[in-house]
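Q&A log
Question type: sequence-to-structure
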Amino acid sequence: MRLERHDPVFAVVAPPHLARFRELAGLSEDDVITADFSGWSKLVLLAGDRAFLFPRDHTQVEFLEREVEALRAVEAAGLGEVPAVDAVWDDRGVSAHVVAVVTRLPGRLLAERIEALSVEQVGDVLEQLARLAARWHQTDPGALAHRPPRTHPPQALVDDLLGRRPIAEVVERTTGSLDLSPAEGGVLADTLEWARSLGPVLVHGDVHEGQVLVDDHLRVTGVIDWQTARVGNPFTEFDLGEWGTGTWRAHRPSFPALRRRQWAAYAEARGLDADRDRCFERFWAVVHALRWPESVFVGTDVTGPHEEALATAHAALS
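Response status: OK
Response body:
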């Protein structure tokens, strides 16, 4: 099948290189190649049961390499919901940068359905994700252990709370920002001490509805886009602040209940203390309240009023 000049494949592979791409991929001229250019760090060509991952530019090569390392490490867990690395090409006859070939998983993005789901359905999905995370958290991070963390601004606050800054300093800052009582500050200090006691694990680092595939029955069929993977505290895997505005607008009032379900599923899968769900809620309620001034630009119909965030944090710390 002859491709037209406007075919999206030519946004990734130059016309003279298409024959070499087909050769390496084992594709005939009749095989259909489609594209997904929605990713921030890579361009994706799709053909059959495989996805071909191209970094958007030279600045994103390191993150594609990070993704490959993460997928290879997670492979030991035998999770069909995580893409497997089929090949890595370093062939100038196809691209100036390395190309990763991974399995293409079934399902559609959870983001396409999240706002129409009931709270119970969202909780079911979060429990599935928590159990999957428990399994990849127990894998050896391999080469990924030697890479520095990829931290974006919202994650920096979480990193501060989970160990980058001393607990006393974090509690003092939080007390001033949220007007905590001495008793609440003490509860926060105990919470952080326990959270920091959890050993570092391989984390995806950016789990949200745009990275999760589900089938028609809301069974999780895929967790994709591992370019943010790193070694870190397991708490970082459950940041609802990474989820989109649709999730917040539709389900924000139910976040405490959803977080309890997350922790219960995760703790059971990893053999941790299920009663620590209160610590889990305290941590994320405080994070939301601290982030609120920076996230208000999306609208209070999404974030809720500041008073709501403060009330949730104080209630969790009581």
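Response note: The mean pLDDT is 93.
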